[in-house]
């Protein structure tokens, strides 16, 4: 049997004999790449070792009992002797090799494959010196096939434990000046024209094991060379180096050269060229471990990149902006019931304007990739199509522009009709309604969205026209950069609600009894504590009045399962607890937009009466744009509490007959399944079983998608931060502010924000904006310059950076940062 093979005797077809690592190294050597010399102890030696020591019986006994631990097998391997024939073969190759310092690496037959890297699952021993140490390292490598982590990994991947074997790579230890890893495609974005390099002085183990923050480079292929598009200097926490007597040691790097990059730029480009050549040889993107020694590069490992995402399609700035806004809207994955009830109605309302333009928007369910009726992810491209209506679009637009003046949009009878119908829906006793009447209530609630869409369809065209004329006017006057200021300071329902909340907070601060109650109780205990005091009961009367007016505001837009303010008043009490702890920022003086308007009116051209009046009229109409957008959102979501309660009433009745376990489980149904039950109540045993199975499947599918964003962040990610920038995003509101990071993940944490903090959030919507009265700046994972957060931040005059993608993960509570809303940057202040 062949117990030993040199690298030159191996190709990528020899995985069963040399394992993934050994086969790939043989392939690299035969192709002429710079690989340190070495040989492989083959799987035939592993088989012989197992047979001679009767280890197969131990393996079978342990695996038959389905134990989660392989410790018993590992211990048996470590205490078993290596057969003499194998020992002699290893030592003969080692002596021929020159008895140098070597690296001993495990090479399993199921590793380094496109679908499973097995990175770090088996052991590696560096700077092994001497025959006794080498044989011990070989035995320990074989035993590492049966560590707890390796056994668990294979079980989770569904790999047959008995079929896996282990070869061992023994390779000359190169005295590394610098070492690290290289990916020949970007493992985060999937970009195939980028190479990612991590580097650190000393042995590469420091980088591979995650002991250091390495130098990080992203390089993009140019016509003749590679351009470095990102560079982050590492922290040099530790250096791993070989010891004279064998093995390695960790030492402090020290200050010498700590500010210098581990590799100069020419070396980085040389390494990138080498990586591309290796990728071309294997035919797929590679994860490569490399060593830089004496001015030369050596490759010590190459394997396919596993779980490499598909590259995101090239997107225009407008498409990226839309993706960012959708990421904000769909911060939580909608349930099947959301996706078949109120969200399609909301989508139709938002896209109704496209019909006027002769463009058809895709139906809601065609915007997403689905699996087993569960929404997986938003499609990278949302297709809009021209219709025959495009030929008459100019006529229709002109008619609407002439007929509907946005200055008077609040006087539209449709708005009053919406309010009356909502009051009727709110007054219904859902528990007394039949199944058919509940469905009718659902349908009537959805019609609210249709009417809100009609309001936008009527008034958006003239407002859009006015916005365009205002930009043109300002350009002619040489004041183009003043557009944002002129559009700010518009009153809307969101700002109105924030003012009302601030008035309640001021009441708390001014009343010692209320102030004492709020300071002593958590948000979920406050309602009961307030009911126990006369001043508290008076306060609750005002709070209930507030909730009657504004309590339909959603915490999350993408699912009706999340409670609104009036469904969970503890959310509001938590906000008030935070607001009452400090005074609001002073808003003295005239609004900035008025000051700017008056300056512009001094322009010589605007002394002409006709031009002056035209400018004022256009400005008034354009300033309605953001107000209409915010307020129609406010009116559209008036129906949300009714929808939520109606859906949960369906769930309550299904719980009553044992179809589901909790009312909330109804959100795993689709609307057609709810409708089906109207004709089959109570459901037959077969129908009950089918529905229960569907709920279980969808729950499992939803759980499997946890951690996967609904909107691919690569579609709106800006260029990565560089230099001393912690984050880069989209400028949302101008200004620069410094403060302490306060990460708020959801409404339950609103009370954590203190005056002077920087609000860092995964998403925001109108229900978050009361926090802006205390925050000095806002940093958000999602959204863009047109997001609610950006709009309200501009109203409050605080900087905002949107679409940072992972700001809530990369920043830490208590960290001091500087937020640059002009350029969309976040800097460290430590």
Automatic annotation (TrEMBL):
A GO MF term: ATP binding
Domain Pyruvate phosphate dikinase AMP/ATP-binding intervals: 16-311
Coiled coil region boundaries: none
Matches recorded under Pfam families: PEP-utilizers (PF00391), PPDK_N (PF01326)
Keyword Nucleotide-binding belongs to the record: yes
PEP-utilising enzyme mobile domain location: 755-824
Domain of life: Archaea
Keyword Kinase set for record: yes
PANTHER family reported in the protein's UniProt record: PHOSPHOENOLPYRUVATE SYNTHASE-RELATED, PPDK_N DOMAIN-CONTAINING PROTEIN
Protein known as: Probable phosphoenolpyruvate synthase
Organismal lineage: Archaea, Methanobacteriati, Methanobacteriota, Stenosarchaea group, Methanomicrobia
């Amino acid at each position: 049997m062949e117990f030993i093979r040199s690298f030159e005797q191996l190709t990528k077809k020899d995985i069963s004999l040399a394992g993934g690592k050994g086969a790939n190294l043989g392939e690299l050597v035969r192709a002429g790449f710079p690989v340190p010399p070495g040989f492989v102890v083959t799987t035939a030696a592993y088989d012989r070792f197992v047979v001679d020591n009767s280890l197969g019986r131990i393996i079978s006994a342990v695996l038959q009992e389905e134990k989660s631990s392989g410790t018993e097998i590992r211990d048996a391997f470590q205490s078993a002797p290596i057969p003499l024939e194998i020992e002699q073969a290893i030592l003969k190759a080692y002596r021929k090799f020159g008895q140098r310092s070597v690296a001993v690496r495990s090479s399993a037959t199921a590793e380094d494959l496109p679908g499973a890297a097995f990175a770090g699952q088996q052991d590696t021993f560096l700077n092994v010196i001497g025959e006794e140490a080498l044989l011990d390292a070989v035995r320990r490598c074989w035993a590492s096939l049966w560590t707890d982590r390796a056994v668990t990994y294979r079980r989770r991947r569904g790999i047959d434990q008995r079929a896996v074997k282990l070869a061992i790579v023994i390779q000359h230890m190169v005295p590394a000046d610098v070492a690290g890893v290289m990916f020949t495609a970007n493992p985060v974005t999937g970009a195939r024209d980028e190479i990612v390099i991590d580097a650190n002085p000393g042995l590469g183990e420091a980088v591979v094991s995650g002991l250091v923050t390495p130098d990080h480079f992203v390089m993009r292929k140019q016509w003749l060379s590679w351009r470095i598009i990102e560079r982050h200097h590492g922290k040099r926490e530790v250096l791993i180096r070989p010891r004279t007597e064998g093995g390695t040691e960790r030492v402090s790097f020290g200050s010498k050269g700590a500010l210098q990059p581990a590799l100069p730029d020419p070396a980085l480009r040389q390494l990138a060229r080498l990586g591309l050549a290796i990728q071309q040889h294997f035919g797929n993107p590679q994860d490569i471990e490399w060593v830089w020694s004496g001015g030369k590069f050596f490759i010590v490992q190459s394997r396919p990149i596993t779980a490499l995402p598909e590259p995101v399609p090239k997107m225009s700035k407008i498409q990226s902006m839309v993706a960012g806004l959708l990421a904000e809207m769909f911060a939580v994955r909608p349930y099947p019931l959301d996706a078949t009830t109120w969200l399609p109605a909301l989508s139709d309302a938002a896209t109704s304007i496209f019909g006027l333009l002769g463009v058809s928007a895709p139906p809601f369910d065609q915007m997403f990739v689905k699996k087993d009726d569960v929404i997986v992810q938003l499609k990278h491209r949302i297709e809009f199509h021209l219709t025959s209506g495009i030929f008459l679009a100019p006529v229709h637009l002109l008619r609407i522009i002439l007929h509907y003046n946005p200055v008077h949009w609040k006087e539209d009878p449709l708005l009053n009709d919406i309010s009356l119908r909502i009051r009727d829906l709110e007054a219904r006793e859902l528990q007394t309604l039949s199944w058919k009447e509940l469905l009718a209530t659902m349908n009537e609630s959805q019609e609210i969205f249709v009417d809100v869409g009609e309001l936008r369809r009527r008034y958006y065209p003239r407002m859009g026209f006015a916005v365009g004329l205002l930009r043109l006017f300002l350009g002619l006057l040489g004041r183009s950069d003043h557009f944002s200021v002129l559009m700010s300071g518009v009153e809307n329902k969101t700002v109105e609600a924030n003012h009302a909340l601030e008035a309640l907070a001021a009441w708390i601060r001014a009343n010692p009894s209320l102030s004492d109650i709020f300071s002593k109780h958590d948000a979920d205990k406050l309602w009961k504590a307030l009911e126990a005091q006369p001043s508290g009961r008076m306060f609750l009367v005002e709070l209930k009045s507030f909730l009657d007016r504004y309590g339909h505001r959603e915490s999350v837009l993408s699912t009706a399962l999340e409670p609104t303010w009036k469904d969970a008043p503890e959310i509001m009490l938590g906000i008030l607890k935070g607001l009452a702890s400090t005074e609001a920022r002073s808003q003295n003086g005239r609004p900035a937009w008025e000051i700017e308007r008056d300056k512009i009116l001094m322009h010589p051209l605007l002394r002409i009466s006709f031009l002056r009046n035209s400018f004022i009229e256009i400005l008034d109409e354009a300033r309605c744009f953001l107000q209409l957008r915010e307020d129609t959102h406010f009116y559209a979501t008036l129906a949300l509490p009714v929808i939520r309660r109606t859906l949960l009433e369906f769930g309550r009745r299904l719980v009553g007959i044992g179809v589901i376990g909790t009312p909330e489980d109804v959100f795993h149904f689709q609307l057609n399944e709810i409708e089906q039950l109207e004709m089959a109540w109570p459901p037959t045993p077969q129908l009950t079983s089918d529905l229960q199975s569907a709920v279980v499947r969808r729950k499992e599918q939803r759980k499997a998608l946890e951690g996967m964003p609904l909107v691919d962040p690569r579609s709106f990610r800006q260029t990565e931060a560089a230099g001393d920038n912690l984050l880069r995003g989209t400028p949302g509101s101008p200004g620069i502010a410094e403060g302490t990071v306060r990460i708020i993940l959801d409404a339950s944490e609103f009370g954590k924000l203190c005056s002077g903090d920087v609000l860092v959030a995964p998403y925001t919507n109108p229900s978050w904006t009361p926090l802006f009265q205390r925050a000095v700046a806002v940093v958000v994972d999602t959204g863009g310059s047109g997001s609610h957060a950006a709009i309200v931040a501009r109203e409050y005059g605080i900087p905002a950076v949107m679409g940072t993608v992972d700001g809530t993960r990369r920043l830490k509570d208590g960290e001091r940062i500087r937020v640059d809303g002009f350029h969309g940057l976040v800097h460290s202040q430590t």
